[in-house]
Design a protein that fits this description.
It is a multi-pass membrane protein. This protein has 447 residues and is an all-alpha fold. 78% of the residues lie in helices and 2% in strands. It has one domain: NCX, central ion-binding region (A middle domain of Talin 1).
Amino acid sequence: MTNKSGSHAGERTPLLNGEAASSDQDANHVQHRSRSKLYTFFLDAGHTPGNDSDSVAVRSTAYTWHIIKVTLLSNYVNFLLPMVPIGIVAGALNWNSTAVFTINFFAIIPLAAVLSFATEEIAFELGETLGGLLNATFGNAVELIVSIVALKDGQIEVVQSSMLGSILSNLLLVMGMCFLFGGLIHRGQNGAGTEQTFSGAVAQTTCSLMTLSSASLVIPAALYAVLSQNEQEDKQASILILSRGTAIILLLLYIMYLFFQLRTHSNLFDSEAQAEEEEHGGGPQMGPIAAAAVLVVITVLVAICADYLVGSIDDIVEKANISKAFIGLILIPIVGNAAEHVTAVVVALRNKMDLAMGVAIGSSIQIALGVTPFLVIIGWIIDKPMSLRFETFETVAFAVSVLVVTYTVQDGKSNYLEGAMLLGLYTIIAVAFYATPSGAFDKNGGV
C-alpha cells in the first residue's frame, strides 16, 4: 500500500510540477502582455493602440491621446506641468505674491521645454533652411513673451535685466558648466591631459557678433554720460533715437547672420546640425498640424503664467528687499532656459562640443541681436521708453563677460579650468547684483 502510494505519488509529481510550471508560464505571459499593453498605451512615444482603428471616433481619440502622450514624454522637466493650472489658479485668486511668483516660475520651466519640442517637430517638416529659421525665431520664445508682458506692465528694468541675464547665463553659466563637466570627464591622464575641441571658425564668428552687440550697449551708455555731464535736457529723446536706429541695424545684421548660417556658409555648422538630429532621435514624433496646435496652446499658457509672474514682482521686491535687476538677471533666465541648459551639459559630457557651443553662443546671439532689438521696436510701437541704454554697471558686466568668453573660445579648445573661470565670473556678477539695493537703478528703463 505504502509502496503503491509512494509509487503513485512519484509518478504524479512530475506531472503536477509540469502543470504548475505551465500555469505559471501562462500567468507570466498574460501579465507580461498586460504590462506591455499598459507600457505601449502610456509610455511608448512611438505608438499608441487605436491609431490604426477603422472607427473614426476611436482613431481620433487615440491620436489625440498620442499627441498628449508624446508631448508629456518629450522632456524630463515635464513633471512640473501640474504647476501650470495651480499657478493660473493662484494668480486668478490673488494668492500671496510670493506663492504666485514661485508657482508660476516653476510652471513656465516645463512650458518652455514643450514649446521648444513643438518648434523642433514643425521644423522637421519644413526642411533644413525653413526649419532652422523657425528654430532661430522661436528659440527664445519664452523670454520674448515674458519680456513683452513685462514691457506692457512698464517693468523696463526687469526687461533689460532679463535680456542681459539670458545672455550672461548662456555665455558664462551654461558654457562654463559645459567646459567644466565635459573637461573633467575628458581630461585624459595625469601629466597627459587632453582638451575638448569645437569649431573655432564658428566660435570666432559668433564671438565677433557678441562683441558688436556689446558695443551697441556701450555707445548709448557713453552718449548718456556725455549728455548728463553737459546737462542736456533732451537726452531722453537722443537716447531713444539712437537705440531705435541701432535696433533696426542689429535686426538687419541678425537676418544676415541667419542667411550666413543657414544658406551660404551652412557647411561651417554641419556638425552642429548633425548632432542636433542625433540628439532629437532622427525624426518627428507628431504631424506639423498637431505640433502647431501644441505650439499655440503652450504659447497662450506661457503668456498667462508670465502675466501673473510679472504682476507679482513689485510685491516680491518690496517684501524680500531684493532688486528687480537681480530677479531679471538671475531668476527669470532660469525659467526659459532650464531644459536646454541641461541638454547642453549632457551633450558636452558626450564630447559633442559643437552642439553644446551652438546652444550656448547661439542662444546668446538670438537674444543680443534678435530679441533685445525687437523689444526696443515693440516699446516704440506701444509707446514704452525701452532703450539700449543699460545701466553702466550692467553694461560693464556684459562687456567684460564677452571679452573673457572671446579669449576663452578663440583657440577652438576647452578644458575644465576654463569652465571654472567662466562660472567664477558668473558667480561674481550674480553676487554683485544680489548685493545691489532695491531701487538703486533707474526705474525708467535707462532713459
